[in-house]
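Interim report, section 4.2 (structural modelling).
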Amino acid sequence: MKLREKELLKRIGFRVSVEAICIPQAGLQNTEQNKQKEALFLNKKIVHKECLIALDESGKEMNSRDFSHFLKQCLVERGTVNFVIGGAYGLDSSILNRANLCLSFGRMTWTRELARLMTLEQIYRALEIDGGGNFHK
Amino acid sequence: MKLREKELLKRIGFRVSVEAICIPQAGLQNTEQNKQKEALFLNKKIVHKECLIALDESGKEMNSRDFSHFLKQCLVERGTVNFVIGGAYGLDSSILNRANLCLSFGRMTWTRELARLMTLEQIYRALEIDGGGNFHK
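Predicted structure of the assembly:
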């Protein structure tokens, strides 16, 4: 894990309990089977009552303040919020359909490494906005 | 500069000549004067015939393929393409008005450090798309 990721996880950890889990890519030739195999793991891992936010190019765009309000509400109502970033071929429809929010970081395509960093920065920013910190001007 | 930035600059450098310049923040109390002072430097630095792409939250969103086509066209027609990322208070209107493209990475707010990394990844992706590489699936 990169330094900046560790730093952001540490900072997020001052406000909420946080954990980053990298799952191995299924590595199958068939991309649909690949996504299904990854989804099987995720669907077992994520408890029904928890909030699921799927990062998806065709998802909803939000500004950082609106995202902050949404995240706060999820934390209060659901306790745990899971962010899921897909592999090279995106996420299985079972994950996208189950998600409480499909979130898009614009129309560009990002590597999952950068998407992870972007997600962590937005989570940190969201908590800072909620906490009244001066990170978000 | 972070490792990933160096890596991306190196990879971009295999296809086109590239240089990253960090300008010091003007550091004035008045945010408008701050932006104007930064703009003075930029307007001197960027030659009139060159292409200027300003990163701006309220700019145009493009997908990576469309951006690749746009960048290629700029490189062919203008030779040099400048990407400008603003400081904490954004960019001066003289830069935004002069820009050939105001480009937005979605509605979220990003730190300039991450915006720089995102820009480099999109430039690399754009060149890979144009060059027929398999980075962009």
